[in-house]
């Protein structure tokens, strides 16, 4: 049996500039500062006694060929890695469901590829996993998404990731244990209670392309600033930057926010937060909140038990095989 473990991710600044439409058209390319977190997707693979294929996720499939698999990510990962039959595959996650803004679909894809390569006796690099995940999601399945999630899930840690005509480059941001502890103490993830389709949000046509492009360039500049702030250990400035990023992002599309999210954001800020923004494409998922020690307890009191929240804790490993014996 093979078991892979792949982290979800949180993007601090630069989200959206990793989409090819932007990164390949701008001379400076795109840039994202993000971190992998200690919430994971697990993929198990086991050899069957027969030649059928059984897949268990939110649904269950039992088919006789790869072409009959409904789960697109599993189907294309099997095709890419050369697995044709005789396997049982299960995916489970610490935070189930899609549309959370934590890059879960890409984490599933990276985790599937890692498990399947290991099942075949191969040891792919982190770069290979990310590139193959991008190929499946963007090129084969045509998802209108960017390339940051696949690299964050593969590499782990806090990274500055650049996107452009020369491809993708990952620049790790080295931090001391003290700063990692401060990140956990001061950043909180608050679930809005809503999920959405990232593809639907990202596919919406902009009514004002000039305004959209201007906002995207501002978001790109925020990533430049965030990389320096992390290197200097200046978390307070990153907290302030979250507000600027959210103000730029929420004007990109009418689908990014709604009345409920705006009201929740207001309650979070009035509880003492120094900065907050919605993660992912928008219109649901998690808010990333920054504030002083003790803010998390104040937020829980203000919002009540119906709002789930937890500290942002960094994963430094990326996608790994935690059990392997094919």
Description of the structure:
By secondary structure, the protein is an alpha+beta fold. Helices cover 39% and strands 25% of the residues. It has two domains: 2-175, Ribosomal Protein S5, domain 2, CATH 3.30.230; 177-311, GHMP kinase, C-terminal domain (Alpha-Beta Plaits, 2-Layer Sandwich). The chain has helices spanning 20-23, 72-81, 104-119, 126-140, 148-155, 177-186, 198-203, 209-231, 235-249, 259-270, 295-303; strands spanning 2-13, 30-47, 53-56, 60-63, 87-93, 158-164, 167-172, 187-191, 275-278, 286-290, 309-311, 320-324. The strands form two sheets. Strands 1, 2, 3, 4, 5, 6, 7 and 12 form an eight-stranded mixed beta sheet that branches. A four-stranded antiparallel beta sheet has the order 9-10-8-11. Strand 9 and strand 10 form a beta hairpin. Helix 2 (72-81) packs parallel to helix 3 (104-119), helix 2 crosses helix 4 (126-140) and helix 8 packs antiparallel against helix 9 (235-249). The mean pLDDT is 93.
Structure, briefly:
The protein has 326 residues and is an alpha+beta fold. It has helices at 20-23, 72-81, 104-119, 126-140, 148-155, 177-186, 198-203, 209-231, 235-249, 259-270, 295-303; strands at 2-13, 30-47, 53-56, 60-63, 87-93, 158-164, 167-172, 187-191, 275-278, 286-290, 309-311, 320-324. The chain is built from eleven helices and twelve strands.
């Amino acid at each position: 049996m093979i078991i892979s473990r792949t982290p979800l991710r949180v993007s601090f600044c630069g989200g959206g500039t990793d989409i090819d439409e932007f990164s390949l058209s701008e001379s400076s390319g795109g840039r994202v500062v993000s971190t992998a977190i200690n919430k994971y997707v697990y993929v198990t693979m086991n050899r069957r006694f027969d030649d059928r294929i059984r897949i268990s996720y939110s649904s269950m499939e039992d088919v006789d060929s790869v072409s009959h698999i409904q789960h697109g990510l599993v189907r294309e990962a099997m095709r890419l890695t050369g697995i044709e039959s005789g396997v049982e595959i299960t995916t489970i996650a610490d935070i189930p469901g899609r549309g959370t803004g934590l890059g879960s679909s890409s984490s599933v894809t990276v985790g599937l590829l890692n498990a399947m390569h290991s099942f075949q006796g191969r040891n792919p690099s982190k770069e290979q996993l990310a590139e193959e995940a991008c190929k499946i999601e963007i090129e084969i399945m045509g998802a209108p998404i960017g390339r940051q999630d696949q690299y964050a899930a593969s590499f782990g840690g806090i990274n500055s990731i650049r996107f452009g005509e020369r491809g993708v480059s990952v620049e790790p941001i080295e931090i001391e244990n003290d700063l990692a502890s401060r990140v956990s103490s001061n950043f909180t993830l608050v679930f809005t209670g809503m999920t959405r389709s990232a593809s639907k949000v990202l596919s919406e046509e902009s009514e004002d392309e000039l305004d959209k492009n201007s906002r995207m360039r501002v978001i790109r500049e925020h990533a430049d600033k965030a990389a320096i702030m992390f290197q200097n250990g200046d978390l307070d400035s990153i907290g302030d930057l979250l507000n600027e990023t959210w103000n730029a992002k929420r004007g990109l599309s009418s689908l990014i926010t709604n009345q409920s999210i705006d009201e929740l954001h207001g309650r979070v800020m009035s509880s003492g937060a120094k900065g907050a923004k919605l993660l992912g494409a928008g219109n649901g998922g998690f808010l990333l909140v920054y504030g002083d020690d003790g803010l998390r307890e104040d937020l829980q009191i203000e919002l009540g038990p119906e709002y789930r929240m937890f500290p942002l804790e960094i994963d430094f490993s990326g996608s790994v095989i935690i059990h392997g014996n094919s």
